[in-house]
Amino acid sequence: MKNPLPRVAAIHDLSGFGRCSLTVVIPILSTMGFEVCPLPTAILSTHTAIPGFKLFDLTDQLPGFIDHWKSIGLKFDAIYSGFLGSVKQVDIVTDFIDAFKTPDTLVVVDPVMADFGKLYVSMPPEMVGEMKKLSRKAQVVTPNITEAAFMLGRDVPEALEEEEVKDWLKALSDLGPAMPVITSLPLKSSPEISTVAAHNAEDGRYWLTGRPLVPTQYHGTGDIFSSVLTGSLLQGDSLPSAMDKASQFVAAAIRGTFGYSGLPHHEILLERILPILNVGVGSDNYTLLP
Ligand code: PXL
Q1: From ligand 1's centre to the CA of 12, what distance in Å?
Q2: What are the angstrom distances between the C-alpha of 196 and each of 22, 31, 78, 88, 213?
Q3: What is the pLDDT of residue 282?
Q4: Is residue 288 part of a domain?
């Protein structure tokens, strides 16, 4: 019998504290109606922005887990990868995609490795080339502007003109993924907006959306964005609708957290906002880049 719920293989780390990766991927995709099968890449005490974090790398365990999944004939409607525990895991995830992808499988690679112009502390510089390699396997990639710059070998820009945004997206799609989506994009014409831009190489169109910037930074918002985007695409939404829903949800999550004082670790109060994924966020608000 066909699985009554679409199934997602979620290849991310499990951080015990700090609401990121699997602790946001699972609740978001479950709330959106999907069965999530986590393939943990590493187990951490907290995400790597909290000093003193402990990381247990699961590289050597992954092949055995994957072989077992193969032996029981598991099938996936989507494969969605994020934070990897080692450079070696790129080949493992590549093999996983080759083994489990069918013509109907959505493959999303979030090349989690950097933000605000810098690699995360656990990331070796070789991860940049490796994530670029992995992106070739995906239909959708979701780098933030720092990750996009690193993957393209460009400087992290202060701000971009709309024409330049198109060039960045085209360059990313030339690496392989038909649908690159860049988050936290600084747009010259809208400095007060946290902009998201996307391209669909299959129809040649470019899309923009965004929400007003809130003067603070939270961890895990990229993971929240990519998870909602993945869920929305699996629900059948178009690329601009899906990126807009994800942008709206991240904005709602930030606003639902920002009003509180005394939250020392800059994490999103996800559980307060999850139910709106079921009632639907507001109407679409995206524009076509001419
Ligand atoms: O949110 C991205 C992310 C995921 N997983 C771990 C991280 C980070 C960002 O810092 O440290 C472990």
Answers
A1: 9
A2: 23, 23, 22, 30, 12
A3: 67
A4: no
